[in-house]
Amino acid sequence: MAFTRILLLAFTLLFTTQTLTAQVLTSKSYGNGIVVSADYHASEIGKQILQQGGNAVDAAVAVQFALAVTLPRAGNIGGGGFMVVHLADGETNTLDFREKAPERATRNMYVRNGEFKSDLSWEGILAVGVPGTVDGMVKAIERYGRMPLDMVIQPAIKLAREGYTLSYTQAQDLNNHKDTFKKYQASARYFTTGDSTLFEEGDLFVQEDLAQTLERIARFGREGFYSGPVADAIVNEMSRYRGLISYRDLRNYESVWREPIVADFLGYKLHIMPPPSSGSVAIAQILEMIDDYPLAEMGHNSAEYVHVVSEAMRRAFADRSYYLGDPDFIDIPMEELLSEEYNNDRMASFSADQATTSESLEHGEITGFLESSETTHFSIVDKDGNAVSVTTTLNGSFGSHVSVSGAGFLLNNEMDDFSAQPGEPNAYGLIGAEANAIEPGKRMLSSMSPTIVTRDGKVDMVLGAAGGPRIITATLQSFLNKAVFGMRSQQATAQPRFHHQWLPDMIFFDDFGLSPDTQQALEERGHRLFPMPGIGRAHNIYVDQNGDLNSGVDPRGDGHASGY
Ligand code: GLY
């Protein structure tokens, strides 16, 4: 069973992520402002907003809307995400614009004849959560921006209306999903050529309906999306395919400001998105579990290092599935999970010579195993030292694949991030995941882990990644590569990474990383190893002591750094 799922995962990853490309990236350094995102146009737009006097939040809102145009597989207005803001005056805040389950959602809505039907939560109208992005962007700019909303959306409107030329990857992404788009009227119109031909690199991609929707948002703010013609179009789409989202769901959607989780490590302070992001708790736990070990002496990606960090990952992921969910619905024992005593206790069973078996660790279940690798992350620092870290998603590549007819955008499939069938034993015979069970109005647990790291009160790193549960371990390693091993930005981001998520009981590693000797030494300790094409895709910024802003663009994708 487990092996079949692993093959399925490998297959999914091969066809939904970009693998390591041949591009050789060198770090770029800027003095004033920098934007690192998954897409050239979006990074350039963010830079222009900074140059026009906007701050990092203005630029972030512009980038989010630009990605909705140029990266339809993950950038969105029909999805959600998380934002971490750190202002130069020391204020840090986080914004949760994660989707919510519609009011008519029920605990077992994907169970038929006692069996969980994963196709229903993955593709089509029932997979859609109430979108949060537009409310989030409006709230962010109202609270922290300097520019009016309509000004920062203009570049995205122009790109949608006038079009942009598809890159090779963008054309392939669309073509790879053609058969699924064809099942949904509006998606067939928006995201296929409309005949038997395929998109090609260099084709002009125009999205007039999306331009009009963005114009409504520019003019009316959140009302331009959650009421009026766009809301009508969303509800009509629900009627067409028998979906659940109502006018009331749209009207009631609210993004939420939340206190970040703060973790201390080697003089650095990590400010991380709190639940419903699971990444914050997991990263903080892992750091607490490994901080007594001589990591630098072990050597980067040595067998000893991979062993101890993987064992900490294993333990944190076991806790993640059991304890974490939407904090507005469940009580998370946060103080205990983050305490030194608890995490030391979790590592009491650690052996330097032998892998712990996941079977012997309590808690958790495998809902995260097949989490999508899609999602996108961007990082921004402005000339005043304000920083923003945003991870945003439709969940799977192109989300539910259902587009809103007349409004030009795709809807998410975020409902798949809830626990599949809580209370029932999973493939491993474990019962858990109650914390992340579906409830009306609840947010689904996420792995997205936007993070801002400060040192002596100043921004030192802006971190984050795409990649399902691998977001957590990729972000952790982007941090450790600088904090422990003193790597420069591009090196820290490009290094081979590894990932353990408790179940399945194995270390996944970048298929271009980990030497044969290291693999052998890990196997001798009892680890099973599984090479994968890309453990996360990170878009990081690292700040030098002299204030230089350095890009960390992941060579596993098509990301781009723009600065001045
Ligand atoms: N849908 C990916 C995540 O939220 O982690």
TrEMBL record:
Gene3D superfamilies noted in UniProt: 1.10.246.130, 3.60.20.40
PTM section of the record: Cleaved by autocatalysis into a large and a small subunit.
Keywords annotated in UniProt: Acyltransferase, Glutathione biosynthesis, Hydrolase, Signal, Transferase, Zymogen
Please list which residues make up the signal peptide: 1-22
Q: Domain of life here?
A: Bacteria
- Which transformation does this protein catalyse, written as a reaction? an S-substituted glutathione + H2O = an S-substituted L-cysteinylglycine + L-glutamate; an N-terminal (5-L-glutamyl)-[peptide] + an alpha-amino acid = 5-L-glutamyl amino acid + an N-terminal L-alpha-aminoacyl-[peptide]; glutathione + H2O = L-cysteinylglycine + L-glutamate
Kindly give the SUPFAM superfamilies that the UniProt entry links to this protein. Answer: N-terminal nucleophile aminohydrolases (Ntn hydrolases)
- Under which EC number(s) is this enzyme classified? 2.3.2.2, 3.4.19.13
Annotated GO molecular function terms are:
leukotriene C4 gamma-glutamyl transferase activity
Q: Which pathway does UniProt place it in?
A: Sulfur metabolism; glutathione metabolism
Q: Which family does it belong to?
A: Belongs to the gamma-glutamyltransferase family.
| Assembly | This enzyme consists of two polypeptide chains, which are synthesized in precursor form from a single polypeptide.
What this protein is called in its record is Glutathione hydrolase proenzyme
| Species whose genome carries this gene | Gracilimonas halophila
* Gene (UniProt): ggt
